[in-house]
């Protein structure tokens, strides 16, 4: 999807306001890059996580130490279970468990960020994407026209719960001496819930990504809402080469305000401005500066870097 929409312009949002143009593929490539980092984290975590704890009452292997085979027994048991052998007992050093809890919170947090964006982009006034259509899914019992972002709602709710529960695993780290009086049991309560909801969150997110409906026409329409103000930075930088940065900034600032008040395109006001006329900047150059598709920066190149292949 990031490659398919690598050059499809849309509005970036800053503080929920339109900022500058980006491509939808750039937005999706950022999601992909985050999951690539999670893959790397998982590879790093697994050797630390999948470690046997077999040490006896206090972790010293005292009951079989005199046989001379204690470490061999530990290694064979670990081999049978497909686990690594620890360098030392870790019965009350629960950093391994807390780390995987934090990892689950990170992964589901990424899913939740994406789902939050989908919810916002699905608003009636925006309409740039839609969740996969399933008859009656996300519909309202009283408002037949509604198509609610129900998958995104589930994702954000479960991810929030995972984050809350994972913090309990850090409490479970605070264990007394070599065999604790209760914190360990916290894991028994929250880990099954964390694992179940992380799995469900990932499943919903996969279905959401695979079936996401993208509406480039709505993206284009929304880019035109500000009558060209969304490319004010591009216009300012273009004019600055001739007029100087501060003069260009003040000029574009005033014209953007007028464009909004009069509901006329910014390019029209630019072409009528006497100072710009004196600078010999023609209408063709102004139109290029005011086209959001010409101000995507390195969106497409960054998509290629993340996706690892040329864009479609």
Describe the protein's architecture and organization.
The protein is mainly alpha-helical and 312 residues long. The chain has a domain at 229-289: Ribonucleotide Reductase Protein R1, domain 1. 58% of the residues lie in helices and 5% in strands. The protein contains twelve helices and four strands. The strands form two sheets. Strands 1-2 form a two-stranded antiparallel ribbon. A two-stranded antiparallel sheet has the order 3-4.
Question: What's the pLDDT, averaged over the residues?
Answer: 93
> Might you state the CATH topology name of one domain?
Ribonucleotide Reductase Protein R1, domain 1
Task: Report the structural category.
Answer: mainly alpha
What's the count of strands?
Answer: 4
CATH-level-4 superfamily name of one domain: Fumarase/aspartase (C-terminal domain)
State the helical fraction: 55-70%
Q: What is the CATH first-level class name of one domain?
A: Mainly Alpha
Series of secondary-structure elements, N-terminal to C-terminal: EEHHHEHHEHHHHHHH
Q: Helix count?
A: 12
Protein name: L-Aspartase-like protein
GO molecular function: catalytic activity
Family: Belongs to the class-II fumarase/aspartase family.
Question: What is the topological layout?
Answer:
Layout: E1 9-14, E2 17-23, H1 24-49, H2 70-81, H3 95-121, E3 129-130, H4 150-171, H5 183-211, E4 213-214, H6 216-223, H7 232-243, H8 245-262, H9 266-272, H10 274-278, H11 283-289, H12 299-307
Antiparallel strand pairs: 1-2, 3-4
Task: State the main characteristics.
L-Aspartase-like, two-stranded antiparallel ribbon, 12 helices, 312 residues, Ribonucleotide Reductase Protein R1, domain 1, single chain, mainly alpha, 5% strand, elongated
């Amino acid at each position: 999807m990031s490659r398919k929409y690598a050059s499809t312009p849309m509005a970036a949002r800053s503080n929920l306001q339109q900022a500058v143009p980006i491509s939808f593929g750039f937005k999706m490539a950022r999601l992909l890059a985050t999951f690539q980092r999670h893959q790397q984290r998982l590879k790093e975590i697994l050797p630390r996580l999948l470690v046997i704890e077999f040490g006896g009452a206090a972790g010293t292997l005292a009951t079989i130490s005199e046989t001379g085979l204690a470490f061999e027994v530990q290694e064979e048991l670990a081999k049978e279970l497909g686990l690594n052998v620890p360098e030392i007992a870790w019965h009350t050093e629960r950093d391994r468990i807390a780390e995987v809890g934090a990892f689950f919170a990170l992964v589901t947090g990424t899913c939740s960020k994406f789902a939050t964006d989908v919810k916002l982009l699905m608003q009636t006034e925006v309409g740039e994407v839609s969740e996969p259509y399933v008859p009656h899914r996300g519909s309202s019992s009283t408002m037949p026209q509604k198509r609610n972002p129900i998958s995104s709602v589930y994702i954000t709710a479960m991810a929030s719960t995972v984050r809350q529960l994972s913090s309990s695993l850090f409490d479970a780290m605070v264990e007394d001496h070599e065999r604790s009086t209760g914190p360990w049991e916290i894991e028994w309560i929250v880990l099954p819930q964390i694992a179940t909801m992380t799995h469900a969150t990932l499943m919903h997110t996969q279905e959401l990504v695979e079936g996401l409906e993208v509406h480039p026409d709505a993206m284009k329409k929304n880019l035109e809402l500000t009558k060209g103000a969304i490319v004010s930075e591009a216009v300012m930088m273009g004019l600055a080469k001739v007029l100087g940065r501060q003069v260009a900034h003040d000029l574009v600032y005033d014209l953007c305000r007028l464009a909004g008040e009069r509901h006329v395109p910014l390019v029209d006001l630019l072409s009528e401005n006497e100072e710009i006329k004196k600078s010999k900047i023609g209408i063709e150059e102004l139109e290029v500066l005011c086209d959001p598709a010409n101000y995507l920066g390195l969106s497409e190149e960054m998509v290629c870097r993340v996706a690892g292949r040329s864009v479609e």
